[in-house]
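Re: [ENG-882] Designed sequences occasionally contain unexpected residues at chain ends

Forwarding the minimal case from QA. C-alpha cells:
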C-alpha cells in the first residue's frame, strides 16, 4: 500500500496498532495469551510505522537533500534508543524489578502521542496513472536486483550487532572482572559514537562517496568489535566501543540509503519493508546463534564472530554493487 502512495495511512494504522498493544499490556489481565496478542499488535504496528516513516522520509526530500534527511531520521532513531533505557532506569530506581505498571502507562502515553502525530502527517501527492507497460517486481525479483541482497545483508548484520552488544557486554564484564559501571559506560560511549557518526554522515558521504564509505564503516565496526574480543586494557576497550558504534552508525544509515538508491521508485517501500523484515529475523536468529559460540568461546568469541561477519558483508557489498550506481 505504501508503494501506491498510502504511506501516511500505514503510519496511522501502525500507530493505532501500537497504541492498542500498549493499552492491552497496561489494562488487560496478565495471562500468556494477552501478552502474546499485545506483542503481536505491537510488532505489526511497529513494522508498519517504521516502513511508513522511512518512505515518508524519502518522499519528503529531493535527490540533493535525501542523504541529509535520512541521516537526521537515523539520528532520531539513535536518540530514541538511548532515551528509552534511561527512562526505564529512572523509573526502576533502586528496585531490582522495574515497575511494569508505570512503564506500560508511559508506553500508552507515548503511543497516544504517536497516534496524534500520525494523523498530522500529510498524504503523499497524488501519483499520475500507471503506465500500461510499468513493470511490477515480485519479492524474488526485487532480491535479484544487483547489489540489493548484499545491502540487506549488511543492514541485518549492523542492526543485530547493536542488540548483541547490549546482550553480551555484561557477560564480557563478568568474564574479565570489569566493574558494572564500566560496562554501562562502554555501552554509553558506543551509543554516543553511533549518534555522532550519523550527524557527520552527510559530510563523510560527500567526501568519500557511497561505496568507499560503506566499506570503511563496516571495517571500522569490525575492528572495534575485534578490539572488544581480545583481553586488552580497559582504555582500549573504550576505543573499541567508540569505533564499533561510529562505524555501525554510518553503515546502518548507508544500508538504508543504498536500498533507496537501488530499488525502483515503484517498489521502493517494498524493498525497505524487506530490509526491516530481514532486520527482525536477524534480531531473533543472530543472538540465538551467538549463544552457541558463547558457550565455549565466551563473549569475546561472539564479538569476534560478528567482526568476521562484518568483513564478509563488506566483501559481498563491494563485489555485488553495480558499477553504474554511484
Amino acid at each position: 500500500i505504501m508503494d501506491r502512495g498510502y504511506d501516511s495511512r500505514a503510519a496511522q494504522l501502525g500507530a493505532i496498532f501500537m497504541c492498542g498493544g500498549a493499552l492491552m499490556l497496561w489494562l488487560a489481565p496478565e495471562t500468556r495469551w494477552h501478552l502474546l496478542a499485545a506483542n503481536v499488535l505491537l510488532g505489526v504496528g511497529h513494522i508498519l510505522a517504521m516502513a511508513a516513516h522511512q518512505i515518508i522520509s524519502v518522499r519528503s526530500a529531493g535527490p540533493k537533500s535525501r542523504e541529509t534527511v535520512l541521516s537526521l531520521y537515523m539520528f532520531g532513531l539513535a536518540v530514541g534508543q538511548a532515551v528509552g533505557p534511561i527512562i526505564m532506569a529512572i523509573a526502576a530506581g533502586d528496585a531490582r524489578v522495574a515497575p511494569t505498571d508505570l512503564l506500560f502507562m508511559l508506553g500508552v502515553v507515548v503511543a497516544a502521542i504517536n497516534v496524534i502525530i500520525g494523523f498530522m502527517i500529510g498524504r503523499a501527492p497524488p501519483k499520475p496513472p500507471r503506465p500500461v507497460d510499468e513493470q511490477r517486481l515480485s519479492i524474488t525479483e526485487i532480491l535479484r536486483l544487483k547489489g540489493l541482497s548484499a545491502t540487506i545483508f549488511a543492514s541485518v548484520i549492523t542492526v543485530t550487532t547493536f542488540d548483541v552488544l547490549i546482550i553480551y557486554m555484561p557477560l564480557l564484564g563478568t568474564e574479565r572482572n570489569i566493574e558494572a559501571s564500566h560496562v554501562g559506560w562502554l555501552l554509553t560511549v558506543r551509543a554516543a559514537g553511533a549518534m555522532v557518526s550519523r550527524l557527520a554522515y552527510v559530510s563523510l558521504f560527500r567526501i568519500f562517496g557511497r561505496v568507499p564509505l560503506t566499506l570503511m564503516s563496516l571495517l571500522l565496526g569490525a575492528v572495534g568489535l575485534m578490539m572488544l574480543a581480545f583481553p586488552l586494557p580497559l582504555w582500549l576497550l573504550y576505543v573499541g566501543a567508540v569505533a564499533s558504534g561510529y562505524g555501525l552508525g554510518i553503515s546502518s544509515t548507508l544500508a538504508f540509503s543504498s536500498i533507496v538508491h537501488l530499488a525502483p521508485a515503484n517498489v521502493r517501500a517494498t524493498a525497505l519493508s524487506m530490509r526491516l523484515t530481514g532486520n527482525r529475523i536477524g534480531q531473533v536468529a543472530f543472538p540465538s546463534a551467538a549463544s552457541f559460540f558463547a558457550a565455549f568461546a565466551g563473549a569475546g568469541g561472539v564479538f569476534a564472530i560478528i567482526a568476521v561477519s562484518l568483513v564478509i558483508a563488506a566483501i559481498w557489498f563491494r563485489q555485488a554493487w553495480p558499477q553504474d550506481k554511484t
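QA comment: On inspection the terminal residues look reasonable. DSSP finds ten helices and no strands in the chain. Proposing we downgrade this to a documentation issue.
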